[in-house]
Write a structure and sequence with these properties.
Layout (H helix, E strand, L loop, with lengths): L1 H6 L2 E14 L2 E14 L6 E7 L4 E6 L7 H18 L1
Antiparallel strand pairs: 1-2, 2-3, 3-4
Length: 88
């Protein structure tokens, strides 16, 4: 429901992909990424979603360049979260 609400399109669950993201040899995130097929979005055909943290935060990333997989979605999402944390 979050993807549909945020991106104003229909999202249908496709699959779950395990992802481990490392930076400088350390694991910065590891978990399952849910993959959704989109209908009605003007640019993206797919979206990726996962949660992390306490309190739990939900992350969604559209499959738009440079994102082309669950792994690259996590890479972009983690990078955004790091930048957001540094800006505080």
């Amino acid at each position: 429901m979050t993807i549909q609400h945020l991106h104003n399109c229909t999202a249908v669950y496709s699959k779950t992909v395990p992802v481990k993201e490392e930076f400088e040899g350390k694991t910065v995130w590891q978990g399952d990424v849910e993959v959704f097929d989109l209908t009605g979005h003007p640019k993206a055909k797919r979206a990726y979603g996962w949660s992390h943290g306490d309190p739990e935060e939900f992350i969604t990333v559209l499959e738009l360049p440079p994102v082309d997989s669950a792994q690259s979605a996590v890479k972009v999402g983690v990078s955004h979260q790091i930048k957001k944390a540094r800006a505080k």
